[in-house]
Amino acid sequence: MWEREQMFVGGAWVAPSTDSRIEVTSPHTEKLIGRVAAASTEDVDRAVAAARRAFDEGPWPRTDPAERVEVIRRLATLYRGHRDELAELITAELGAPISFARRAQVALPGALMTALADTAAGYSWQEKRPGVYGQDIILRKEPVGVVAAVVPWNMPQFLTVTKVVPALLAGCTVVLKPAPESSLDALFFADLLDQVGLPPGVVNVIPADREVSAYLVAHPGIDKVSFTGSTAAGRQVAAACAPNLTKVSLELGGKSAVIALDDADPATVARAVRLSGMGMAGQICNSLTRVLVPTSRVGDYADALAATLSAIRIGDPADPATEMGPLVARRQQERVRRYIDTGVREGARLVVGGTDLPDGIDRGWYVRPTVFSEVDNSMTIAREEIFGPVLVVIPYGDEDEAVRIANDSEYGLAGSVFTADTEHGLEVAGRVRAGTFGVNQGYSMDPAAPFGGVKASGYGRELGREGLEGYLDVKSISVATA
User: Strand runs (DSSP E) across 320-452, as ranges?
Assistant: First the structure.
């Protein structure tokens, strides 16, 4: 049982203003495993005020960028020393298999810190260009200000690092608001921040419910909101930012398509689809969930996907042999089951999976990996983000139709194409409207590459140089010649 009675505000562990608590329940056992202090609107005011002071009056925004880089390198070293206990905590609170938690939920964020520090170390914080009228123009990259980082539960440490670390490297101060389900690992991260020597108020961590989160993103003391979550919630965040003209970046939902061309191999595609999201039971925004295949090969792909997903070992997420654990909450399990029922009702063919619990499991919020075939792109299961282990196989007649189907979605987060001809694959990638794309693989989430979507998948980019620049303003200074 993890008990956290305080929040991290102003460089100190402080008691909340109310006795409200967030309860964390194991998705595997359905038992209470933790309880943390829940922030109120008054606590938000305290955290924003602390971040505001740290930005307006403190040393961090005025620190040499090289010194900020060294702080992040120290944080990365400290973080790597706590990988095992952090992975075990994420497995307990989210149901992520321990092998996946060690690799993707913890090791990847640790490596990401170093990569982001390297990006900042090589960044040009100031440049000079000649003006049209003969004067010199100096461009300075300056921190945007106080950042509200709102992080979901599915990849909490990875998404925390993609927001907090670039903001810190840019010289911003931060109020981090984790999801209730992943509050425990967020406070663990705060413990590490507390040890690394940041000035008071540079990072503040306040677990809170949705209502208090809405108060945070609308707060007039915030200069930028960085939000990851559903498209519906993203629209609300954008609307809340508008009255204050608060800058906002949104990384939202997806319904990503993989296009298997005539020369692709069904088994290779099936493995890539599995790797794109099944480690977290399909609860990954850029999972490849629509599998577009030639009409003549629908059976081959349905069989390959069914065989690959049926071989996934499902069970106790703490068991190193487990490859897929439960969904994060009962509401998520019920949501996915409703989509499966809808797919059957609308006439799709259920190839494997369904709404029953996996064999040998009698508790926990599990859903079988599920494949539908003979799916039309107009069906609900092909259009809405399910956020669970459910795939749909959609036939196409020719390549033009495949591209049309891939683009026939309100989302545009990710996608992929599989072909023996890489150059042709790049041509297809250029025809699909998506912020990120893979050729003969799912999107790799390389730290050097900017990640983000188009259309209803949001706007703004994280990772790479572009991710750092999302926390910077450009000031132009014109200098008269003597």
Answer: 349-352, 370-373, 390-396, 411-412, 415-418, 438-439
Q: State the pTM of this model.
A: 0.96
CA atoms within 13 A on the CB side of 279: 18
End-to-end CA distance of the chain: 69
Average pLDDT over residues 391-412: 98
Q: DSSP readout, 135-146? A: -EEEEEEEE--E
Q: Which amino acid is at 146?
A: V
In angstroms, rounded to a whole number, what is the distance separating the alpha carbons of residues 176 and 159?
Answer: 11
Q: How far apart are CA 202 and CA 61, in angstroms?
A: 9
Identify the pLDDT of residue 420.
97
**According to DSSP H, which parts of 276-379 are helical?**
298-310, 330-345
- Three-class DSSP category at 427: helix
Q: How confident is the model at residue 482, as a pLDDT?
A: 66
Question: What integer is the mean pLDDT of 13-37?
Answer: 97
* Amino acid code (one letter) for 237: V
Sheet of strand 415-418, all strands in order from the earlier edge strand to the far edge: 349-352, 370-373, 390-396, 288-294, 256-260, 415-418, 438-439
Strands 390-396 and 173-177: unpaired
Domains in the chain, ordered, with CATH?
2-252+458-478 (3.40.605.10), 256-447 (3.40.309.10)
How many Cβ atoms from other residues are within 10 Å of residue 360's Cβ?
7
Q: For 113, which DSSP code?
A: H
Whether residue 361 contacts residue 368, with contact meaning beta carbons closer than 8 Å, is answered with: no
> Which amino acids are annotated catalytic?
251
| Maximum Cα interatomic distance, the chain, rounded to a whole number of Å | 82
| pLDDT band, very low/low/confident/very high, at 445 (cuts 50, 70, 90) | confident
Q: How far apart are CA 399 and CA 383, in angstroms?
A: 20
| Token pair belonging to 423 | 């150059």
Q: Please write the tens of the pLDDT for every residue from 460-469.
A: 999 999 999 9
Tens-place pLDDT, residues 82-132: 999 999 999 999 999 999 999 999 999 999 999 999 999 999 999 999 888
Phi, psi of 105 (to 5 degrees): -80, -25
pLDDT at 284 over 70: yes
- 343-to-286, 339, 361, 428 alpha-carbon distances in Å: 21, 6, 24, 29
Whether residue 411 contacts residue 453, with contact meaning beta carbons closer than 8 Å, is answered with yes
DSSP annotation of 445 reads -
Q: If you average pLDDT over every residue of the chain, what do you get?
A: 97
